[in-house]
Each structure stands twice: as structure tokens, then as C-alpha cells.
Design a protein that fits this description.
By secondary structure, this protein is an alpha/beta fold. It is about 30% helix and about 15% strand. The protein has a seven-stranded mixed beta sheet with strand order 2-8-7-6-5-3-4, with helices on both faces.
């Protein structure tokens, strides 16, 4: 069946709902721990260009300045950058442009849009399911050698695991397109490591590498839709040929230019440092609770936890005013998993109190 994972059956365990996302968990009156978007007012260096762009809406968008700015940030020529209407459009372009792929593979658990886009384009997808008992660590040997299109997240949504760059690089080879979703790379931090640890955004030597980035998470721009792809110019040309004209709006292009500048990068690194401290605090509080297991070594803006009966606990949390992300819509997980966004310590402490009361009931 086209669009169905290989080996899947209509009579097996029901397929996860790949179209379910964290925003579906959120409702008025709930504290949002389900969506991984930082909620803060845009800083002046971002708000100013966004406001100014509104005076140019009568003109068709010109992506050249934004493309050049993003290219400069990653030390690449502009021909190796393709701007997109959010990361989600990037997955669609890949699925449509690479219809000739013989054996696409998606490494799960991860963001479900890559597989959903492949299925919508008629691909039959193989899944490689990482082992929770091994901390969801990537073993390159588990990816079939004949896979000519491989998709993996780093750091991975929803596990928050950051794979070593060398491990991901081991997946690259001639004749294969390797798509690395780095939508959350700017949330990562490691002491004494400059820049974004384990990112491949600056690698130009790997055959078939496509790095996908998003600007919507750290800068709270989910409603604006802005992201980009980095890779070989000839490969990006194939994707550009299936992209609609003027796909990225003028305000989104202004945001891309601003967020690629040195002031933005410096601010981004400072945010990542604070996020790491808040994440460690949340993780410490979670691991102190009975029957709660934190998956792997969280490295991003969210934490994945396993709790027996998590499907019922999620509903009990809603009754107490908290929205968290269900895990059973991610291939490789199930009803005992929840994803929790990292917020400030005061919010996390209040959440832990609510969760502890439910676990003790």
C-alpha cells in the first residue's frame, strides 16, 4: 500500500496519528507545556525589521538578502541555502522532489511530519525504531545500507536526545540523501563548546547532506512560518523546482535576515545557557518522582518521560490546568509516554507539584 510504512498491517497495532501535534493539546486556561515554542516578546533587533517589513507588502518578496544573511551565518555560499515557509514546508519539498527514492527510511521516534510528507507523496517508508532502554541512541548500523533517503532529527523531537555529530555523519554516503532535522539545534548547549554542539549546518563535505533549520522555536515565530534548508546547490535546485513562487513572505524574510545576524546568534547562545539550567532543574525534579523515568539525556527545550498510565495522567493534568504532549502519536512510543516543555523554574515547580499529587492519589 502506497504511503503505508513497510511491514505495517491494517490488523496490527493501530498506526500512530502522524498528524497530531502539540498545539492540539492546548486550550484556554491551560498552562502550555505541550508546545516547544519559547514565548517571549521579540527583542528590538527583531521587532524593528518585522514592523518595517509591513510597509513593503505591496512588493513581491525578494529572498536574496535573507538568503545571503543565512548563508553568511553558516559560512556557505547563498546557492547552498533554500528558504522555506517553516521547517514543515522543507519536508514536503523533500518528499515531492525525491519521489524517485527507492527506499526512504525515517529514524523514530522523531517529529512525525517527515514521514507524513513522504506518505502524502506516495513513498513507502521504512522505520528504524530506536530503543528506549538504550536511551534512544542512534546506531548507524541499524539503518539499511540500501536506504537512499534517510531522515533523522538532531536533537530529536520528542526524545530531546542529541546524537554525536560523528554518529550522524556515519549515515552519509554517495547515492544517499541524508536529511538532518536541526529545528532545535539552537536550543542546545555544552560547556566549553563554542556554537551549537553536534550541528552539521556548516558541513559542506558530506555527500547528499540536507540540514533543515527552523527560526520559529527560540524566537517565538511559529505563526510567521520561516525556516531553511542547507545543502549542495544542485540538490537544493531540485527542491526549489517544486516550491511555489514567493513561498516565504516579506515579514518572514525580514525575520530570517535579523535572526542570522551576530546580535541574534549571541542572544541565542545566552538563551541556550539559561535553558540548559532550567532543563536540568526540571529533569532533577522529575527523576525524584516515583515511577517517572526521564528518557535519555535531554538536550533541548523539552523532556520525554515514561510513566505507567501516562495516558490517564495527561487527562488528570488537564483537569488541574496543565497541557502536556501525549507520546502515543510518535512511532516507537506508546500510551506511557509524555513530552514536557521546559519552562522557567517557577512554572516547572508548580507542574511537579501537580504531577506529584496525581501520582500519590
Amino acid at each position: 500500500m502506497r504511503g503505508q510504512p513497510r511491514g505495517a498491517s491494517r490488523y496490527a497495532v493501530p498506526e500512530p496519528d502522524l498528524g497530531h501535534h502539540g498545539d492540539a493539546e492546548v486550550a484556554a486556561g491551560l498552562v502550555d507545556l505541550a508546545v516547544n515554542v519559547r514565548r517571549a516578546a521579540p527583542p528590538p533587533w527583531l521587532a524593528g525589521p518585522l514592523t518595517a517589513s509591513l510597509t513593503r507588502l505591496a512588493d513581491y518578496p525578494d529572498p536574496s538578502p535573507a538568503r545571503a544573511a543565512v548563508a553568511a551565518r553558516h559560512a556557505r555560499p547563498p546557492a547552498e541555502v533554500l528558504l522555506t515557509a517553516g521547517a514543515a514546508e522543507g519536508f514536503v519539498l523533500i518528499a515531492q522532489a525525491l519521489r524517485g527514492a527507492r527506499r526512504p527510511v525515517v529514524v523514530h521516534p522523531q517529529f512525525t511530519e517527515p514521514e507524513a510528507a513522504l506518505a502524502a507523496a506516495g513513498h513507502r517508508v521504512d522505520r528504524v525504531l530506536l530503543d528506549p532502554a538504550d536511551g534512544f541512541r542512534l546506531d548507524p548500523a541499524r539503518v539499511p545500507a540500501d536506504a537512499d533517503l534517510v531522515m533523522i532529527g538532531n536533537p530529536t523531537n520528542p526524545t530531546s536526545v542529541l546524537h554525536p555529530a560523528a554518529t550522524v555523519v556515519a549515515l552519509a554516503r554517495p547515492g544517499r540523501v541524508l536529511v538532518v532535522d536541526e529545528a532545535f539545534a539552537d536550543t542546545t548547549y555544552a560547556p566549553r563548546v563554542p556554537g551549537e554542539p553536534e550541528s552539521l549546518a556548516g558541513r559542506r563535505d558530506l555527500p547528499g547532506l540536507l540540514v533543515l533549520r527552523s527560526l520559529t522555536k527560540t524566537w517565538g515565530l511559529a505563526g510567521l512560518r520561516i525556516g531553511y534548508l542547507l545543502g549542495e546547490a544542485t540538490l537544493l535546485d531540485r527542491l526549489a523546482r517544486v516550491q511555489p513562487l514567493w513561498a516565504v513572505s516579506t515579514p518572514a524574510l525580514a525575520a530570517a535576515t535579523a535572526c542570522a545576524g551576530p546580535e541574534a546568534v549571541t542572544a541565542e547562545r545566552a538563551i541556550a545557557v539559561d535553558l540548559a539550567a532550567d532543563r536540568d532543574h526540571l529533569t532533577t525534579r522529575l527523576t525524584a518522582l516515583p515511577r517517572v523515568r526521564v528518557a535519555g539525556r535531554p538536550a533541548s527545550a523539552f523532556v520525554l518521560v515514561e510513566i505507567p498510565g501516562a495516558d490517564r495522567i495527561r487527562l488528570a493534568l488537564r483537569d488541574r490546568g496543565w497541557a502536556v504532549r501525549r507520546g502515543d502519536t510518535f512511532p516507537g512510543l506508546g500510551p506511557d509516554w509524555l513530552r514536557v516543555a521546559v519552562r522557567d523554574r517557577r512554572t516547572s515547580d508548580a507542574f511537579i507539584e501537580a504531577l506529584a499529587e496525581i501520582l500519590e492519589a
